[in-house]
Amino acid sequence: MRENLEHWIRIITPIAEEECIRIGIHPDDPPVDSVGEIPRLLNSFDSYKRLIEIVDSPSNAIEFCQRTFSEMTDAAGEGIYDMIRYFGERQKILYVHFRNVSNPVPMFWEEFINTGHVDMEKAMRLYKEIGFDGVFVNDHVPHTIDDTDWGHRGRAYANGYIQALLDVIR
User: Fold this and answer.
1) Domain count, the chain
2) What CATH number has the domain bearing residue 121?
3) Given CB 3.0 to 4.6 Å as the disulfide criterion, which of 41, 42, 158, 167 pairs with 138?
4) pLDDT band at 77 (very low <50, low <70, confident <90, very high)
5) Which residues does residue 34 pair with via DSSP β-bridges, in sequence order?
6) Using alpha carbons only, what angle is made at residue 83 by residues 81 and 86, rounded to the nearest 5 degrees?
Protein backbone atom coordinates (compact mmCIF):
# COMPACT_ATOMS: atom_id res chain seq x y z
CA MET A 1 0.00 0.00 0.00
CA ARG A 2 2.80 2.41 0.88
CA GLU A 3 4.58 1.70 -2.41
CA ASN A 4 1.35 2.39 -4.32
CA LEU A 5 0.83 5.67 -2.46
CA GLU A 6 4.40 6.78 -3.15
CA HIS A 7 4.07 5.79 -6.81
CA TRP A 8 0.84 7.79 -7.13
CA ILE A 9 2.33 10.87 -5.41
CA ARG A 10 5.32 10.79 -7.79
CA ILE A 11 2.98 10.62 -10.81
CA ILE A 12 0.29 13.09 -9.73
CA THR A 13 2.45 15.84 -8.21
CA PRO A 14 4.11 17.00 -11.47
CA ILE A 15 0.67 17.08 -13.11
CA ALA A 16 -0.68 19.13 -10.21
CA GLU A 17 2.29 21.51 -10.53
CA GLU A 18 1.60 22.00 -14.26
CA GLU A 19 -2.01 22.87 -13.48
CA CYS A 20 -1.13 25.05 -10.43
CA ILE A 21 -3.09 22.73 -8.15
CA ARG A 22 -2.20 21.74 -4.61
CA ILE A 23 -3.26 18.28 -3.46
CA GLY A 24 -3.64 16.99 0.06
CA ILE A 25 -4.72 13.84 1.81
CA HIS A 26 -6.84 13.65 4.96
CA PRO A 27 -5.28 11.57 7.74
CA ASP A 28 -6.72 8.18 8.64
CA ASP A 29 -9.65 8.84 10.95
CA PRO A 30 -9.31 7.62 13.60
CA PRO A 31 -5.50 7.42 13.43
CA VAL A 32 -5.09 3.74 14.29
CA ASP A 33 -2.96 0.98 12.74
CA SER A 34 -5.91 -0.89 11.22
CA VAL A 35 -9.68 -0.92 10.98
CA GLY A 36 -11.39 -4.25 10.42
CA GLU A 37 -7.97 -5.80 9.86
CA ILE A 38 -7.30 -3.37 6.99
CA PRO A 39 -4.00 -1.52 7.57
CA ARG A 40 -3.92 2.28 7.62
CA LEU A 41 -1.06 4.34 6.15
CA LEU A 42 -1.54 7.92 7.32
CA ASN A 43 -2.10 7.55 11.04
CA SER A 44 0.91 9.25 12.63
CA PHE A 45 3.01 12.40 12.58
CA ASP A 46 5.90 10.40 11.09
CA SER A 47 3.74 8.96 8.30
CA TYR A 48 2.76 12.48 7.29
CA LYS A 49 6.36 13.68 7.38
CA ARG A 50 7.18 10.82 4.98
CA LEU A 51 4.23 11.79 2.75
CA ILE A 52 5.39 15.36 2.18
CA GLU A 53 8.95 14.17 1.55
CA ILE A 54 7.99 11.83 -1.32
CA VAL A 55 8.07 14.78 -3.71
CA ASP A 56 9.38 18.16 -2.53
CA SER A 57 6.79 20.41 -4.12
CA PRO A 58 4.28 23.06 -3.04
CA SER A 59 1.69 20.88 -4.80
CA ASN A 60 2.34 17.97 -2.41
CA ALA A 61 0.61 19.20 0.75
CA ILE A 62 -1.86 17.97 3.38
CA GLU A 63 -5.40 18.50 4.58
CA PHE A 64 -4.73 19.26 8.24
CA CYS A 65 -7.54 17.73 10.27
CA GLN A 66 -6.55 19.22 13.60
CA ARG A 67 -8.85 16.86 15.47
CA THR A 68 -7.34 13.74 13.91
CA PHE A 69 -3.77 15.00 14.30
CA SER A 70 -4.53 15.85 17.94
CA GLU A 71 -5.57 12.23 18.48
CA MET A 72 -2.03 11.22 17.50
CA THR A 73 -0.68 13.02 20.59
CA ASP A 74 -0.59 12.57 24.34
CA ALA A 75 -3.65 13.02 26.57
CA ALA A 76 -2.76 16.68 27.17
CA GLY A 77 -2.76 17.28 23.42
CA GLU A 78 0.59 19.07 23.50
CA GLY A 79 2.03 17.40 20.39
CA ILE A 80 -0.55 19.06 18.15
CA TYR A 81 1.31 22.38 18.39
CA ASP A 82 4.53 20.74 17.16
CA MET A 83 2.60 19.31 14.20
CA ILE A 84 1.02 22.66 13.34
CA ARG A 85 4.44 24.31 13.44
CA TYR A 86 6.17 21.54 11.46
CA PHE A 87 3.71 21.46 8.56
CA GLY A 88 2.87 25.16 8.69
CA GLU A 89 6.46 26.36 8.53
CA ARG A 90 6.91 24.19 5.44
CA GLN A 91 3.71 25.64 3.92
CA LYS A 92 2.20 22.18 3.61
CA ILE A 93 -1.22 22.93 5.14
CA LEU A 94 -3.90 23.41 2.49
CA TYR A 95 -6.75 24.05 4.91
CA VAL A 96 -7.58 23.17 8.50
CA HIS A 97 -10.43 21.13 9.91
CA PHE A 98 -10.51 23.29 13.05
CA ARG A 99 -12.16 21.02 15.57
CA ASN A 100 -11.60 19.37 18.90
CA VAL A 101 -11.98 16.03 20.70
CA SER A 102 -11.77 14.94 24.31
CA ASN A 103 -8.66 12.73 24.21
CA PRO A 104 -6.34 10.89 21.86
CA VAL A 105 -7.26 7.43 20.56
CA PRO A 106 -8.58 5.00 21.58
CA MET A 107 -10.93 6.83 24.00
CA PHE A 108 -11.99 10.03 22.23
CA TRP A 109 -15.31 11.64 21.45
CA GLU A 110 -16.44 14.63 19.50
CA GLU A 111 -16.51 17.84 21.50
CA PHE A 112 -17.70 21.34 20.96
CA ILE A 113 -14.87 23.40 19.56
CA ASN A 114 -14.09 25.00 22.93
CA THR A 115 -14.37 21.97 25.24
CA GLY A 116 -11.83 19.46 23.96
CA HIS A 117 -8.26 18.78 25.01
CA VAL A 118 -6.63 21.19 22.54
CA ASP A 119 -6.30 24.86 23.50
CA MET A 120 -7.93 26.33 20.39
CA GLU A 121 -6.78 29.89 21.08
CA LYS A 122 -3.19 28.68 21.39
CA ALA A 123 -3.58 26.75 18.13
CA MET A 124 -5.06 29.76 16.31
CA ARG A 125 -2.23 31.99 17.55
CA LEU A 126 0.26 29.45 16.23
CA TYR A 127 -1.40 29.38 12.80
CA LYS A 128 -1.02 33.17 12.69
CA GLU A 129 2.61 32.99 13.86
CA ILE A 130 3.56 30.56 11.08
CA GLY A 131 1.79 32.70 8.48
CA PHE A 132 -1.03 30.30 7.59
CA ASP A 133 -3.45 32.19 5.35
CA GLY A 134 -5.79 29.37 4.37
CA VAL A 135 -9.30 28.38 5.39
CA PHE A 136 -10.54 27.07 8.73
CA VAL A 137 -13.41 24.59 8.34
CA ASN A 138 -15.64 23.50 11.24
CA ASP A 139 -15.96 19.92 9.88
CA HIS A 140 -17.79 17.66 12.40
CA VAL A 141 -19.80 18.99 15.34
CA PRO A 142 -21.60 17.23 18.18
CA HIS A 143 -25.33 16.74 17.70
CA THR A 144 -27.67 18.63 19.98
CA ILE A 145 -31.34 18.29 20.77
CA ASP A 146 -33.62 19.56 18.01
CA ASP A 147 -30.71 20.24 15.64
CA THR A 148 -30.72 19.08 12.03
CA ASP A 149 -28.90 15.93 10.93
CA TRP A 150 -26.21 18.17 9.42
CA GLY A 151 -25.79 20.00 12.73
CA HIS A 152 -26.74 23.56 11.79
CA ARG A 153 -26.73 24.78 15.40
CA GLY A 154 -23.41 23.15 16.21
CA ARG A 155 -21.87 24.48 13.00
CA ALA A 156 -23.17 27.99 13.66
CA TYR A 157 -21.58 27.84 17.11
CA ALA A 158 -18.27 26.51 15.70
CA ASN A 159 -18.17 29.11 12.91
CA GLY A 160 -18.88 31.89 15.40
CA TYR A 161 -16.12 30.59 17.67
CA ILE A 162 -13.64 30.41 14.77
CA GLN A 163 -14.51 33.94 13.67
CA ALA A 164 -14.19 35.25 17.24
CA LEU A 165 -10.70 33.71 17.55
CA LEU A 166 -9.70 35.22 14.21
CA ASP A 167 -10.95 38.65 15.34
CA VAL A 168 -9.16 38.47 18.69
CA ILE A 169 -5.86 37.25 17.26
CA ARG A 170 -5.55 39.69 14.34
Assistant:
1) 1
2) 3.20.20.150
3) 158
4) low
5) 39
6) 110
